[in-house]
């Protein structure tokens, strides 16, 4: 017992010396930077390069989930100056504990083993037609000289959705027009249900006659749909779902996310490029075609893009087979590629640099800063342009993210989001666990200007009621 206490005492002293003397060394800092949680896909090895001049033992709480250096025994004696290989064996989670000299607990880490995920990268230019869930109020106007307008009297606000009139569901602008005209002819008010956030409210709308146009109005500008172009990020052939754009579609007037009432993804053909320059992000100019051949439905519009069902991988892509996806912690600063279209429907591969990766504790659209380095793309577009949002980012054979924003003051650079957040919203990736991180801010502009922003090439239908 006395020898054990003496050994533990000296081990503790040595540990303190290592902390003091090694604190300034790169290997020691790398060791201390090891996360409290690590995630692996089934069957995938992970190497830890600690490069510390010390021996240790590694114990695994559940050896059926994880093996160390291919050893069958547990715990395993290791040399910290050599790479430590973790091999996932089956789904689950377990705790890994590292003991210095086999005695002093030095590091505890939770290891989660997730099912391997493979999807087909996109890059195709797509046309997006999004229908709102209800009719969105985007503004007020006077009816003749009457103040306030009928809509303002009823306390209907910009950003509200009209979802029901006189007991009938409302999803289109022309439905509102018909209800208003009918009530006006009958000299009565319209019982109207609006949705404001997560709450519903019933109001009474009294139409007023616009004598100039000889039509009844309620003093509201309303919208029921949005359309634009973007880029397909991935298609999951197993689940029959897709993800695109990389960020939410917002209404260009209210700046609020459009609540999905339906929609479709169709073929798009890039006709020309407006080259980006400092202070003025460029854009793809594209048209919809073969609109009767619907590629997919739109069921979700989240901060990470649009998602829905898709029967098959669209043609003209570079990949026919699925490739592995990379988790956010697998992304490295360094060379990568994006897939996108700059002419017609031809998907091409272009070189970029991931200049900074952002550790994220919670899902966020701005996970990495990227810079276009490919001379061909710089010559054609000047860098990242609007319409490029959703372009897949591939690194070391894995799909790791998607382009989301371009920097206004430097169109060669922009943001990308980690692919795992898009996979989660698509229903492909379930619980993943979170890891340590921090927020990062920079002036940027969405890379899908066809849906919001300056209004160039916006394809919205706005009606004054």
UniProtKB/TrEMBL annotation:
Q: Which GO terms describe its molecular function?
A: serine-type peptidase activity
The UniProt record lists the Peptidase S55 domain at 199-438
Alphabetical keyword list: Hydrolase, Protease, Serine protease
Q: Which SMART domains match?
A: PDZ
Pfam families in the record = PDZ_6, Peptidase_S55
InterPro entries in UniProt? PDZ (IPR001478), PDZ_6 (IPR041489), PDZ_sf (IPR036034), Peptidase_S1_PA (IPR009003), Peptidase_S55 (IPR008763), SpoIVB (IPR014219)
The reply to whether Transit peptide figures as a keyword in the UniProt entry is: no
NCBIfam families according to UniProt:
spore_IV_B (TIGR02860)
The name this protein carries in UniProt is: Stage IV sporulation protein B
- What organism is recorded for this protein? Kroppenstedtia eburnea
Q: What is the lineage of its organism?
A: Bacteria, Bacillati, Bacillota, Bacilli, Bacillales
